[in-house]
Structure formats: structure tokens, C-alpha cells
């Protein structure tokens, strides 16, 4: 995998996050504030990634119309969907860290720390190696 | 996908700390490589070997700090942090930790001290990940750094 491909894989997940968190906030009252914060963070990351890919002369991956994240009718389901997504982002970032160099690698390492903490925010237990299955 | 599959070379690198340190100590690198199926035999990057040793030593010190804090303040639930740091140290092949200072007698101060130690480890492993040569080692160190950040948050939640 090239760094650009790894960035595109990460961007695809950020698109999913930007779709997911408004749905969570709309359906689960108790999670509105957390979902709003997560949405804003992922929207900013998505926009940053779009810029990075364009600066590489690459067309950024487009968002899907919708995503299959399972049922989202209560807080437990919403937390599970969020944890799953953040964990997939962590895995994508670990892939990027491994193929990138210099500033891009440092960016991936910082973002991995952020996504690992986001996993926790949504209720995941701490792990020795976030990003590894 | 298993952890072994994810990091590709591998399983190899998570076992890697142990592999490299043990191999260097015993001069049996080829035997160790055979045991994990590496072919051709690796010639560890000396810089990566140094990074691994430093990470293992620092993680052993962290483990000692967690254990001392847990012993000094049995009311603190550090089980998850103990497990995470123990898994990290095992993946790096283990190391001896020098005797560390006792944690502060005040529980709040002990929590702060341990959280700060985890913050430092998080930053150090992130820096190591950025400078490491082997992509698999980069991933292990980056994941460790993120794991330390999670552990620091757990510790701070005990304040």
C-alpha cells in the first residue's frame, strides 16, 4: 500500500464518521453532546485529509450515501458502532504510519493517539496496542 | 485479522523486542529467526535494536511504577493499566527495571505522578515510531504510544 492509498482508506473512514455521529446525536438523546464533539473533530480531520490528498495531486475518495453500521436505536448500540468505527480508524492509521515517512508518519502517529482516546470516549477498554486487532 | 497478520513481518516484530534482544545476547539470531519463520535471516538495523532496548527498559520502569503505585495505594484500580503495560513489555521481550522511587504517600499525588510517567512514555514511543526504520517496528511503537495515552486517561480518571 502506498501512503496515498493509506490516506484514502483513512479518508473513507472519516467520511463514515461524519455520517455516523449526526445520526447518533439525532437518535440517542443522552449522547448528543459527545456525538456533536466527535462530529466536529472528524469533520475537521476529513477536511484536512481532503486538502492533503489534493496537494498530492490526487482526487479525494468520495463519501457514500449511507453506511451499514447496524441498528442505532439505543445508547449501547450507538456506543458499539462508534467504538467499532474509531477502532477501524486506529487500524487505518497504524497502516499509514507503517508506510509513511517523516512528517506524514508523525501526523499518523499523532492521529492514532487521538483515535485511541476516541475509542475510550465511546466506552472502549484501554488496550496495549490500539490499532492492532 | 489477527495481530500476527496485521503487522505482517510480523508476528515477527511484536515478538521482535524479545527476538532482537535475545538474539543479540545469545548470538543465536539465526536460530531465533528459524523459530519464527523469517527467511532470509534478518540483519537487525542497529538503530532499531537500540530503539527496542530503550523502549523495553522504559516499559519495565513503567511497569515497576504501576506496581509500586498499586501496592502503595491498594484502593486504586490499576488492573487494566497493569495488564496493558505487562502486555507491552512482554511484546518487547521484557527487561529489568532498576529500583524506582516509592510513589507519593498522598494518593492524588501518586495518581498524578503515574499519569505523568505514562504521558512521558507516550511521547517517547511516538518519537521512536517516527524515527524507527522497520515499518513493522514503527507500527508497534505507534500502537504502544497510543496505548500509553489510553492508560494515562484511565489513571487520571482515578483522581
From TrEMBL, chain A:
Organism: Aeromicrobium endophyticum
Name the record gives this protein: DUF4439 domain-containing protein
Domain DUF4439: 6-133
Gene3D superfamilies: 1.20.1260.10
SUPFAM superfamilies: Ferritin-like
InterPro entries for this protein: DUF4439 (IPR029447), Ferritin-like (IPR012347), Ferritin-like_SF (IPR009078)
Automatic annotation (TrEMBL), chain B:
Protein name: Uncharacterized protein
Origin superkingdom: Bacteria
